[in-house]
């Protein structure tokens, strides 16, 4: 493929995924469960539909389906080394103008005050490169920044520069040159430079760190910092979702001086984000206190003086706390509480369709789940409709085919309806696999989240119905995370998201060099090769075909049993202004809007 075609296709992919107009339509303007999966659509969107259906979406556990009309993607000019999406990305001057505009808060904004945020769990760790759940991501995202970021402003989604000001991508798609903001300081007073970007990426790439997005950074083969405010990333091959990777919530920039000086980011939080971490007031399991960073690079923000994060292990206590005004925001609103929230005039449900899903993850090193025939058989044993009704009160849809839903790049329509609920057929397949009388096993889940426990109880009953002696082991969330990271389980219930809008999420979930693949002890060379090849394809039609093929193989391997999509929401007090629920699989990024939240006081 000629270099100009590569450049054009990369720009087309980024523009399709992330232009303010099109991304809004893809994730907010799509009705049904397909929109729940913000996996890059090959071609979709209708301007009128987007405007009419702009409803917020949900987290790393949500669903959101689109059925839209085909639309042409505007292609950039063929000029060599042209900046991606020149019309929309700010230049240095544009950034300065934005900062000047932010410097003075709008007249109706009440600056100052404290926001109390009810977390769904106590963060298992504070390392910015270790993904351990949505609750843990909140303090990290509020204290750190990325060079590129996902953002929602007044209901409109965009992917935009954060610590960077712009990017220039070479014609062959192998070199990304970022211009960085100047006068940005870490919370300890250290200047932010290109050296910090280098140190961050190298830390993420280090296998000893165990970073959640280590695999996403693997295409980067060289990092140059020609000056303090320029960083050049060289890739081994074109990687379509690279900007997406750099905007990942696990790509948070750390201080090179701190890391290379022996600092431990799990015990000391030093970022460039809108809030600083108060280490003296930190009480694990009780509260995390954040203070306004006066030198934040988005001038004029944050509006709040202080954010206190309070973990609530009990869901009823958390929702009652927001009802009673003890907290301003409750993370993870249970589906059973939706009607109660909607009827309460003092609170609002921040919700929408989202790209989150529930699945069963098998430890492929544990008998009998080391046998794909057993895993395949169990796909027919699960009553997915029952899970949706019991665990999610009807707010979701069964997944009977591949993960990528209709309307999005990689969707394979031939797989739909494959895994029907057929317990008799499941028993036949188990008998063929050598287990005519079933077997004994232990299913790991948590009692801390009703959606997990409810799903686990339905699955346990389904397996018992076909002669499997299934014991349910319920732990607190921190224990589940620890056992998951150490692969100390037979099989487990998990709730996950489809990430930032690209079908390469399949690599994050199933590639053997990514944490999820390692923790399930699944290693299939053919699958790895296909996933690697797909990430390097820049032609949209070719990528679409490759991801369809990958899902066919995944259906055979059954590394996980997909169960259902789900909706995920937060609840806010009505005097909380500026909070925005991010669309689709970006729901876990919603906490970033706290930088523009303000509280209306009487």
Can you walk me through this structure?
This protein is α+β, with helices and mostly antiparallel strands and 602 residues long. The protein folds into three domains: 92-108 and 115-260, Alpha-Beta Complex (Dipeptide-binding Protein, domain 1), CATH 3.90.76; 276-352 and 569-599, D-Maltodextrin-Binding Protein, domain 2; 356-566, Dipeptide-binding Protein, domain 3 (Roll). Helix content is 31%, strand content 18%. The strands form five sheets. Strands 8-9-10-1-11-19-12 form a seven-stranded mixed sheet, with helices on both faces. A six-stranded mixed sheet has the order 14-18-13-17-15-16. A hairpin with a 2-residue loop joins strand 2 and strand 3. Helix 1 (3-18) crosses helix 2 (20-28) and helix 19 runs antiparallel to helix 20. The longest helix is centred in the C-terminal third of the chain and has 18 residues, at 540-557. It is globular. 56% of the residues are buried. Residues 12-102 have low confidence and may be disordered.
């Amino acid at each position: 493929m000629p270099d100009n075609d590569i450049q054009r296709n990369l720009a087309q992919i980024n523009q399709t995924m992330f232009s303010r107009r099109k991304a809004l339509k893809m994730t907010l303007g799509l009705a049904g469960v397909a929109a729940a999966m913000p996996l890059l659509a090959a071609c979709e969107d209708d301007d009128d539909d987007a405007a009419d259906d702009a409803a917020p979406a949900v987290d790393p556990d949500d669903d959101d389906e689109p059925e839209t009309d085909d639309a042409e993607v505007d292609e950039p000019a063929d000029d060599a080394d042209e900046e991606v999406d020149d019309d929309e990305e700010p230049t240095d001057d544009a950034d300065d103008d934005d900062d000047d505009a932010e410097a003075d808060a709008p007249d109706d904004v009440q600056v100052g005050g404290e926001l109390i945020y009810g977390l769904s769990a106590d963060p298992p760790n504070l390392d910015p490169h270790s993904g351990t759940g949505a609750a843990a991501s909140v303090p990290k995202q509020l204290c750190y920044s990325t060079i590129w970021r996902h953002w929602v402003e007044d209901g409109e989604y965009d992917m935009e520069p954060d610590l960077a000001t712009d990017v220039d991508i070479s014609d062959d798609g192998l070199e990304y040159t970022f211009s960085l903001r100047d006068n940005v300081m870490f919370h300890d007073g250290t200047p932010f430079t290109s050296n910090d970007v280098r140190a961050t990426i190298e830390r993420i790439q280090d296998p000893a760190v165990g970073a959640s997005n280590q695999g996403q950074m693997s295409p980067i083969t060289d990092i140059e910092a020609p000056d303090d405010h320029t960083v050049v990333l060289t890739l081994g091959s074109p990687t379509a979702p690279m900007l997406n990777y750099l905007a990942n919530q696990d790509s948070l920039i750390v201080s090179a001086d701190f890391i290379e000086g022996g600092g431990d980011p799990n015990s000391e939080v030093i970022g460039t984000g809108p809030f600083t971490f108060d280490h003296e007031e930190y009480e694990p399991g009780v509260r995390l206190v954040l203070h306004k960073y006066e030198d934040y690079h988005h001038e004029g923000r944050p509006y709040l003086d202080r954010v206190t994060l309070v973990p609530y292990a009990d869901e009823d206590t958390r929702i009652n706390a927001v009802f009673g005004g003890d907290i301003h925001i409750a993370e993870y609103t249970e589906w059973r509480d939706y009607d109660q929230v909607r009827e309460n005039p003092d609170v609002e449900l921040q919700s929408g369709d989202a790209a989150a899903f529930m699945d069963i993850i098998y430890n492929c090193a544990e008998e009998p789940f080391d046998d794909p025939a057993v895993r395949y058989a169990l796909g027919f044993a699960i009553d997915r409709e029952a899970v949706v009704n019991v665990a999610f009160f009807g707010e979701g849809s069964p997944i009977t085919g591949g993960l990528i839903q209709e309307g999005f790049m990689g969707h394979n329509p031939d797989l739909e309806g494959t895994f029907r609920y057929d317990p008799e057929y499941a028993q036949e397949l188990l008998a063929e696999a050598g287990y005519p009388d079933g077997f004994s096993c232990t299913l790991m889940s948590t009692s801390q989240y009703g959606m997990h426990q409810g799903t686990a109880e339905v699955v346990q009953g389904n397996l018992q119905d076909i002669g499997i002696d299934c014991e349910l082991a319920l732990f607190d969330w921190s224990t589940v995370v620890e056992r998951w990271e150490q692969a100390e389980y037979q099989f487990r219930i998990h709730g996950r998201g489809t990430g930032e809008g690209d079908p390469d999420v399949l690599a994050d979930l199933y590639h053997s060099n990514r944490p999820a693949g390692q923790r399930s002890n699944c290693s299939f060379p053919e699958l790895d090769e296909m996933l690697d090849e797909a990430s390097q394809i820049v032609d949209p039609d070719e990528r679409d075909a490759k991801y369809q093929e990958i899902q066919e193989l995944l259906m055979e391997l059954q590394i996980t049993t997909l169960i259902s999509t789900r909706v995920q929401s937060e609840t806010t007090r009505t005097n909380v202004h500026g909070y925005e629920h991010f669309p689709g699989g970006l729901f876990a990024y919603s906490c970033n809007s706290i930088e523009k939240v303000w509280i209306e006081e009487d």
